[in-house]
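--- STAGE predict ---
source: upstream dedup step, 1 unique chain passed
mode: sequence only
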Amino acid sequence: MIATAVVPAGASLAAASASSANVPERACSRDGDICNITWGNGAYVDFVEAQRGGPLLGRTGFFEVFARNNWKKTDITTPDPVRFINIGRNFAQGELICLRFFQRNSDGSFTQKSGNVCTSIPIG
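--- STAGE serialize ---
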């Protein structure tokens, strides 16, 4: 199971998460290996807190946050279990905000190692 991490002091996301208007929506894979914690309010998504555990813990690669109309944002991972991905935009009512993880292979290619884990608008 994945534990929620604390945003480091001084990080740009720390101020956003401290705001009373900023609330999370959380979705995790069935096995708990990946969690999508979408922070925002209403239709606005501030950032996605991407968490890994189990066999994905310590693996490198990238997270991809995506929504309809081919919108996506990627962020390279480190071995750390938590990654914060800035989004900073509004989405339509009922839209899904999805997260997946791609692991870097020894030959430099990438393989998707998680299912799509999605939250939905509105947040909160």
